[in-house]
Design a protein that fits this description.
The complex is a heterodimer. Chain A contains six helices and no strands. By secondary structure, chain A is mainly alpha-helical. The radius of gyration of chain A is 18 Å and the shape is elongated. In chain B, strand 11 and strand 12 form a beta hairpin. Classes of the chains: A mainly alpha, B alpha/beta. Chain A: This is Histidine-containing phosphotransfer protein.
Amino acid sequence: MDFVNQLQRKFIDYSSSLHREGIVDDQFTQLRKLEDENSPHFVMEVASLFFEDCEKLINNMAIALEQKQGVDFKQIDECIHQLKGSSSSIGALRVKNACIAFRSFSDGQNREGCLRCLQQLSHEYSLLKNKLQTLFRLEKQIVAAGGSIPRVH
Amino acid sequence: MGLKLQQSYHHSVTVKVNEQMGTKRGYTFIQANRAWLPKFLLLWVMVMAFLSTWIYKKMDADNKVRRKEVLSTMCDQRARMLQDQFSVSVNHVHALAILVSTFHYYKDPSAIDQETFAEYTARTAFERPLLSGVAYAERVVHSEREKFERQHGWTIKTMKREPSPIRDEYAPVIFSQETVSYIESLDMMSGEEDRENILRARATGKAVLTSPFRLLGSHHLGVVLTFPVYKSKLPPSPTEQERIEATAGYLGGAFDVESLVENLLGQLAGNQAILVNVYDITNSSDHLIMYGHQNQDGDLALLHESKLDFGDPFRKHQMICRYHQKAPTSWTALTTAFLFFVICLLVGYILYGAAIHIVKVEDDFHEMEELKVRAEAADVAKSQFLATVSHEIRTPMNGILGMLALLLDTDLSSTQRDYAQTAQVCGKALITLINEVLDRAKIEAGKLELETVPFDLRSILDDVLSLFSEKSRNKGVELAVFVSDKVPEMVMGDPGRFRQIITNLVGNSVKFTERGHIFVKVHLAENPKPMEDPKAETCLNGGSDEDALVSGARQFKTLSGYEAADERNSWDSFKHLVADEELRYDASVKMKAADEASQSVTLMVSVEDTGIGIPLIAQDRVFMPFMQADSSTSRNYGGTGIGLSITKCLVELMGGHISFISRPQVGSTFSFTTVFGRCKRASFSDTKKPNAEDLPSGFRGLKAVVVDGKPVRAAVTRYHLKRLGMLVEFANSVKIAASACGKNGSSCGSKTQPDIVLVEKDSWLSGEDGGLSLRTLDRQQNGHVFKSPKMILLATNITNAELEKARAAGFADTTIMKPLRASMVAACLQQVLGTGKKRQPGRGMLNGSSVLGSLLCGKKILVVDDNMVNRRVAAGALKKFGAAVECAESGKAALKLLQLPHSFDACFMDIQMPEMDGFEATRRIRMMESQANEQMNRGTEEGSIRTGEWHIPILAMTADVIHATYDECLKCGMDGYVSKPFEEENLYLAVAKFFKTKPISDS
């Protein structure tokens, strides 16, 4: 039981650190609240959807930006819009902020700025992915140890 | 990020500006030819130089013509005179010839000898001023020579004074004037010139002239005039031969032309100016000079020739005149031309200067215009920036509000609940304020539109007060609101704007007030006016005199006892208002009908504070934007100074006006009027707006006693309690309350026994016997069977020590912190009376989950979003509340799913989607539905299951909550919108509209 308690404490600490560092915002908490007996892995499911989506979009943008003969900023704009929407849905705050900065550069058709932002974005993305995966691992460990995942208040 | 956005925006603005400049800039002629200006100047100067040269030339030519005319006149005059004089002399010589022929030949013996001739000629010499002398020579043929020589006693000599050689004919001089006596006995025919002359004279019978030669004796140039003298009378038209034969001799005279002309010219004016030459031009190829020098200087360029006729047809003479000096330079012409040039140069330069100035001014003008456009663009950019930043602030604010909502769902004590609610209300107010910042741009553009919705004025005032409660409590300033009973419960108007005005005014007051109170009072504007105005007048005038006398010592009958700038809120006038209300309470029922007949109600709102006031100098610019009383104000108190200007705009938009009375160091009272529509009861009963706060009805009929020494404050307390439906009585002090209670208790029993006693802290502390009286109050109650009244302490701020003391004194139940709000009072009373354990179902925050669950459970909902993650999250959120969710990833897919008939109850639609966006999809769905409805109406006999029409509620899901988007949503047929990501409360409000008011028939 001590072990479970310890894990639970660790889980709470970790998730509040995510909030503190601004990696996720309260929308993420809202998502967590949507988890119940009917859909116990709702967050994980959504997150993996998000990761998939995100990787695809980042890839697309990287390809679009490397086009030597004129960058299709419209396409980039669409990608950014998508990414911004999904990141704000999942509550990935820092990814979303990166998207907003990105958007201003793509509006200004600034290729250099876009490339820089893309780098920033993929950095934020991998950070988020790492952090969330760690969180999910903790969650699984708690479940495996027979405990329940503590609700965040 | 906002900056970058702005930057990119700025680019587009600049481009636009440039385009605008290109099309708008009106080029004038001068502006268009600015590069040509120096060339124009140069051209002008050249043309003028040319013109002045021409003028000079013309004047000079005129001069020359005049000169020539003068010369010709002078020349002709001289020639004529010379000719006249000459012919006079010739005539005289002619007369002499006739004399000689008459007295020498016709008389016999001759009447003339040398002596007579010499004397006669000498005495008549004045008649012949031009002749140096005259002489007579007789014709002698060779055959008569000897006889002649003997007769005269001398031999004929030649001109060279030698005895004459033998010739056919001789012409020796026999008579001579004394001046030429040296030629006596000389043969005139020995001289070549004279011989020719003689021959010609006797042949023609007229006076003839020799060509000029050097005269004997004088060596002057001269000519000799010769007349023939005939022996006998000649026939009327004699032949040449007859003349020769009749010739007896010759009379000759020598003209000394040189001295002659010299004399003549000497008589005339201006003889120095001209040079005269006289020529014999008989031989046209060789002009013989008669007068003047052959080689002369003088002005060779100009000469005048005049013909001279000396009466000898054989000889021709002419006079040539020329000026002595060359024509002088014409200074007049030169000066005139030069002055003309200078004047034109100056005129040209002035014009050039003017043109340059015009160009410069126009340039400046264009520059200013450009700057103006730029400034306007910057203003637009600023608004854009504000909008962006405000939008960014909303996001974290949503987090805060969400967490507070969560917190309120947990089990909290009343204090905690109050704090949390306050925090939430403040957060909401902040969001509202951000929206107001967005609206500022609209105010500036004059595009602000006021809403007209029913709202509860009182709850808005409560909200605003709670916004500032923390601040005022810390400062120890009493904050209170009072709304007259006659103000309708619900009015039609713009609650947001009203709140903004109140917030601004109260915010200002809180900022500038360190002690005393801030009092917001609302009453009908029509009622108190006739009664109050004169009173206010006397209050103001008389009051201030009194203040000077007893300042400090006097307790003002205001809310907190501090003096206020405008004494209209003091008890003296306030009690009239309250009393009036009470008196008319019955009448008001009757009046209600009349009241409701009028469509609008004018409210008078005043915000009174006892702050630092506004310095007199600053009072007239209080409503100007960005103007605070002085620069130190913003240093000490912060703020931008824009609040009051917005407030003024808003008040005027709402059909009222704002004014203030302020006395430095005493306080300020801002009052404004505003016009609201009356709300029809029917309309607001079924549309319970979120701002219409539901007050619990559990306190209806309870009795309360308010113990307060200050009547205004007591009235405020009563106002709040009355709103809860309680009956309220006043007591000036605890003692009076206790005695009244006791009396009532003993005589009338339970009926008048108060349930609650509210004691103001000041009254409790001021009364020495406070504790004692309370105890008696307690004891009396204990003596009876009734439950004891609950004791509640009212305080603005309270220290822990005081709190302890209060507890000890009997206020065990609770302490209500001011400012009072009906909802807060209700919450406290609930706790005190024990009714608050269970949460009131309709009260305060709508408990999201359960209500939403009941609304959404079993409903079939379609979520349309191209973003997979968004779709999943939205679906998850809706499923949580029991809805059955289906998803579509594009507008097209949604259309397919919504082909009629379908079983969906609602549709959540993302707006920005590729291919077909939410607006377009909605339009198509609506089109589809209207077609289906038409068909259905046509074939009602088929007995379809649905009696209603097809109309699926479509809600937009959008991240930006700009009004324009909302308008667009409604325009294309949507029913509402929810902000993304979902927020329980928001979702509830949006969904409730349909599922409550529009029960779905087939669910």
